[in-house]
């Protein structure tokens, strides 16, 4: 089950569960599309893995399997 982390680890933009601009790597590191496409070059700064679009969990499933609330920041990238 994906965590659906709540923010971009690079710029800290909010990424709610329904966000279509969320990108993740195979370890679920999470970034917004702007950071993924721009400063990160479609590579996770933590594991160097590919960043892909995060799926959207249906609203009905969120009730039973809620998104994560812990916010993360990447070890590198656009640390504003």
What this model shows, in words?
The chain contains 2 helices and 3 strands. The protein is low in regular secondary structure and 80 residues long. A hairpin with a 5-residue loop joins strand 1 (22-24) and strand 2. The chain has a 3-stranded antiparallel beta sheet with strand order 2-1-3. 14% of the residues lie in helices and 10% in strands. It has one domain: Herpes Virus-1 (2-Layer Sandwich). It has helices at residues 33-37, 59-64, and strands at residues 22-24, 30-32, 52-53. The model has no long low-confidence stretch (mean pLDDT 91).
Write a brief caption for the model.
It contains two helices and three strands.
What topology does this entry show?
Elements: E1 22-24, E2 30-32, H1 33-37, E3 52-53, H2 59-64
Antiparallel strand pairs: 1-2, 1-3
Strand content: 5-15%
Count, helices: 2
CATH domain fold name: Herpes Virus-1
CATH architecture descriptor text: 2-Layer Sandwich
Output the structural class. little secondary structure
Beta strand count = 3
- Assigned CATH class: Alpha Beta
Shape: elongated
**What's the story with the biggest beta sheet?**
3 strands, antiparallel
Helix/strand order: EEHEH
Main sheet strand line-up: 2-1-3
End-to-end CA span: 30 Å
Q: What does the average pLDDT come to?
A: 91
Number of domains: 1
Helix content: 10-25%
Organism: Candidatus Pantoea soli
Protein name: DUF1272 domain-containing protein
Pfam families: DUF1272
